[in-house]
Specification:
Elements lengths: L3 E5 L3 H10 L5 E6 L2 H10 L2 E4 L12 E4 L13 H11 L6 E7 L10 E2 L10 H20 L3 E6 L1 E3 L6 H6 L4 E3 L7 E3 H12 L6 E5 L7 H12 L6 E3 L7 H6 L5 E2 L2 H7 L8 H12 L1
Parallel strand pairs: 1-2, 1-4, 2-3, 4-5, 5-7, 6-13, 7-11, 8-10, 9-12
Helix pairs in contact: 1-6, 3-4, 7-10
Length: 288
């Protein structure tokens, strides 16, 4: 099966799918705000579209993926895609598949406990609450249009060009210690294969957690990365004393371990990188 994928907010995660679909003969139209990113897309074989500012080619689209986060925009606040094009999407009954990239942040703080897709969202931050609202808005639009919607709640994303190695090499890494803190992660390649499997599946509308098998304290990951580089890890810094941006500090407000059993069962997904050890080693191999 091939088709035309319209990828809204075509960024890092969507590129993992791009690398799988283009060799299969798919046409991919990717939106961006940046002319520089548009040029890079075109060089890779993706048809770029500057958006907002252009009409979305829904008539020629067979599959739609949105990575656009909710927030303030020209139409007010909330999901900018639905604010601008919700009415058209509600009539786009020809679409074979819609994918929405969300976040495990919707579960909020679980004090290190396990969550799965049956765990009620418990977001406290405004950013995560907006994600819950956006998920429900996409569910409503797709239900009215009779469209198949797959929502992917992604854990912390890492992969080539996005990992702890550069911070360690430049001395900017901090060994932040907060007892009881757990994060879940997902490697770039496993995002790509999960999205590819979902598009080609016959699964009805679903919500899936997309994470690896091994949630872990962040300091464990940083120590392992330092070991792989053959350097000493940075000294421990208590969370209260760490020099963190407001965004980074907000991530530490939530501690949870996320289960991925449903997506494995439904899609037959076998993680290429089931834990951070294999994932970090792969990044170093990619770097050469």
């Amino acid at each position: 099966m091939t088709g035309t994928l319209l990828s809204l907010g075509h960024g890092y995660s969507a590129q993992a799918l791009e690398q799988r679909l283009l060799p299969q003969g798919w046409t991919i139209i990717g939106t961006t705000r940046s002319p520089e990113k548009a040029a890079a897309m075109q060089a890779r074989g993706v048809t770029p579209l500057i958006w907002p500012g252009s009409e979305l080619p829904l008539a020629q689209t067979t599959h739609l993926l949105t990575s656009v986060a909710p927030g303030a925009h020209a139409h007010g606040s909330g999901d900018p895609v639905l604010a601008a094009h919700g009415a058209a999407l509600a009539e786009a009954r020809h679409l074979k598949w819609v994918g929405y990239l969300s976040t495990v942040g919707v579960y909020g703080d679980q004090q290190g406990g396990w969550v799965d897709e049956n765990t009620p969202p418990n977001a406290r931050s405004a950013r995560a609450q907006a994600r819950i609202t956006a998920e429900r808005a996409w569910q409503d639009i797709c239900a009215r249009a009779g469209l198949r919607l797959h929502i992917f709640r992604l854990a912390g994303i890492y992969g080539p060009g996005r990992g702890p190695f550069e911070k360690l090499r430049t001395g900017r890494a901090q060994m932040v210690i907060k007892p009881g803190q757990y994060f879940s992660r997902i490697h770039y390649d496993d995002i790509g294969q999960a999205l590819d499997l979902a598009i080609h599946s016959d699964q009805p509308s679903r919500i899936w957690n997309l994470c690896d098998d091994a949630p872990a304290p962040p300091q464990d990951v940083l120590r392992h990365a330092a070991m792989l580089l053959g350097i000493d890890p940075p000294p421990d810094v208590p969370f209260e004393q760490a020099d963190l941006s407001p965004m980074a500090r907000s991530f530490y407000a939530d501690s949870k371990r996320v289960r991925n059993d449903r997506i494995k069962r439904d899609l037959g997904l076998e993680m290429h990188y089931p834990d951070y050890q294999t994932g970090l080693a792969a990044i170093l191999r990619h770097e050469g």
